[in-house]
Design a protein that fits this description.
- It is a single chain.
- This protein is mostly helical.
- It has 2 helices and no strands.
- It has one domain.
- Helix 1 runs antiparallel to helix 2.
Length: 117
Amino acid sequence: MTNKNQPEALRLADELEDSLESHDGSSLTARCQGIADDAAAELRRQYAELETLGAKLKTYEDLGDAGSDVQLLRMGYAAARLEIESLQAKLHAAKQINAAQFGMLAASIPGSALPGK
């Protein structure tokens, strides 16, 4: 049951089992037969595990792309937050300057009821 497109591990397991079935049993002891059967089963088990791990790795690779997108979003958010904080600081400074200038203006008007005098 060998397929040319079959992975090498599975091909070897099939070949091992096929070669054991073709013997009449006189050249192989029961112990050797058991070891060969175990080896074929182990090859199949390892291949199945490898396929599972490969699928998980693909999933993690796909998540890696999403993780990069999330990181870019975080960086954009941080930049926007810093810009907002900078603008708030400038606005606060401008308000203080305007208040000081208004106070100086009020003080310069004689008889003004404006605060600052």
